[in-house]
């Protein structure tokens, strides 16, 4: 059988060579983009804040080395929409040694002993040789100083709440330096816009702290998930029928316990102060422990688990006969896996290759994104507090005071806006970043495709062996891996390319959807929702078609388009069997994943919330205990999916081979079936029953 597969591949030769060449060229371009980013990029633009002249605050070896903080002259203007358009507040900004710690206006400080303190917050080189109106007009000094605190190297008003009233220092209002008083809430709006990204950074730092103290226990949880998955697969090899029913019962019991626990928590919170607050009124909170003190949270959990329990029970009732057929297919898959035991370790190879893709994208790609976004020249634009037709135009700060623009708009100023440029390189930045994301999708899909073809080739060798296991090759998995790389790299690249194009389109649609959220155009929102839904469905269909096309490539060695066409029409000719067997086995494997994830997730929840008395003092203190719990749950699912994916690929390969075997052979001595007698009896019997049922319904 191994010689037959090798001869087929040699006879057909390498498939989709053009796509293989395109993949190699794209990888070369991927490396070239990284080199360009490192050459043109400047990491200082990510690390250090910049003042209105584009100079870095706190960088060693510069005149601002002792001035690490960025001070905003009028932070209220940060509430302007220009912040979102230009990523820069339309107010003068300078680097300072420390943030102001007192309330002081320029008018009051000018003729007092506080003026020396005030001057450090004026532009560098300020000379007190102008009138008050000229100084404020030219933006040489801020009109008012407000007590501030540094946050991420930026000075923000030290706003606090006293008995529900917002205050700065001991005041609820402040003088704006122009003779009028304003409410503190205006400062809050400005600080919110300037502080939006910084709050996300604080959240990220707290999450990082939780990882540093809990990573050891997270690893233990993932090891437990791996041991459970491996044990389950081993038992499935020898006790397939019993293990499937045990799995079904255990899933029902785990969901039942979840419903019971939610009800007990719901009852316990009855009468407690604040437990009847609704989720809508509470809003989003980064500390998820707050939600666990609400009765509505546990009611929502209980309803969700109850619906899931009812759906699973109803499916089991209606699919009870088909489950018996699916168990027979799983038994045959267990025999195939038993003869190709090294296939259980192949998910580690796929995981390693995916880690390489992610690591390259995170180190080169992630750094590339930062460097590409900072690999620009400083761009200065005209800002004005009043209406000016030149607002937003680029300018030169050196020549602006004597330029025509300053005469047309006397109150305007030339201020640093962002890092950018007008060269061809700068215009191509967005395209390069899209290319970066596209290459990540393409390479990741290629790695997954390689794994699918390798496993399909190994299990196809088992199926098409007439005398099992005597006709099996010595190393079916390694042979299939070698054939895939030697003959079918182009076909794998072709399938991965199609999927990557759809995925990058979905990413672009998500980006556009986020940009259109503030729009009031209902038709645009409806159209965007329809497009997102269509491309989601298209991605699922392409993944299904690719998977079966890879199986046909492993069997016959044909190119991608031919394999996809043959696989699609073969499945359409056996659509009843697809519904009866293939999807039922997928459902059973999903239950297995849910069992492992649910068990490990419940254990992680009780451990990290200090509810296991034996190890109550062992669990680390956390800012957000949902961080390690979600990590363990997601990691457990990926681990379980990795092990069950081998069985899933085995079942899909055997099923497609079975359909092909039925069409090409008739069971005679001249054309004997390659399927095992056990598989033939149960599948042909099930197919006959389905056919009779269809005739009765007609």
From TrEMBL:
Catalysis performed (reactions): ethanolamine(out) + n H(+)(in) = ethanolamine(in) + n H(+)(out); choline(out) + n H(+)(in) = choline(in) + n H(+)(out)
GO CC term (a single one): mitochondrial outer membrane
Main location per the UniProt record: membrane
Subcellular location: Cell membrane; Mitochondrion outer membrane
Membrane topology: Multi-pass membrane protein
Entry's Gene Ontology BP terms: phosphatidylcholine biosynthetic process
Transmembrane intervals: 12-38, 215-235, 242-260, 298-319, 339-362, 439-466, 487-509, 549-572, 584-608, 624-644
Entry GO MF terms: antiporter activity; choline transmembrane transporter activity
Family recorded in the similarity comment: Belongs to the CTL (choline transporter-like) family.
Oligomer and partners: Interacts with COCH.
Functional description taken from the UniProt entry: Choline transporter.
Full protein name: Choline transporter-like protein
